[in-house]
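Quick bug: PEP-CTERM domain protein output formatted oddly.
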Amino acid sequence: MTTNYLRPALILAAGLLAPGANAAVYNFVQTGFDDGATISGSFTVNDTDNSGQINVGSASFGMNYNEISALSLSFSGNSIVAAFTHNLADLSAMVYNVGSPYLDDEISGAQQELIATNYFGSTGFDYYSGMGFGGFGGAVFDKAGNATSYSYNLVSVTPAAVPVPGAVWLFGSVLAGFVGVKRRKA
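Here's what came back:
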């Protein structure tokens, strides 16, 4: 009787443990702005064309959004540019070589690595980084105050830790219970 429950439980486990689509979450940070300010955030991407490069952005850059599903970006603020946050709706462009520990270290080729948020906006704050934007590490720009803070550091990128879903732990305890029941009856 226990095997009647064990087979569906194993099928359910295979479904829970199967890898998802190729979506990956990355955290990033850029230091070196005036007064010790930093840019930090995360992005979720899927290399849909298997090119090894995430290439997304606005129509102005001739790119599309098929390879990114989430973006959060925060500037801590300093005496030159106030703190601000951006999200996916603010993304103007992003080119990232998948698995690279840096974003903006690629200096050759047609699609140099870069990230830009609110680049075409008429108000608020801009952020842009990468070799495609003049050879420095990055800059934040306050459009109202006409002030810019620069960093000459690259953007450091690390894969985010993937938490084990609670369902896996629950399933494991149920499976252990089934094995214990089977041993008692045997």
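Actually, after a second look the formatting is fine. The chain is about 20% helix and 35% strand. Closing.
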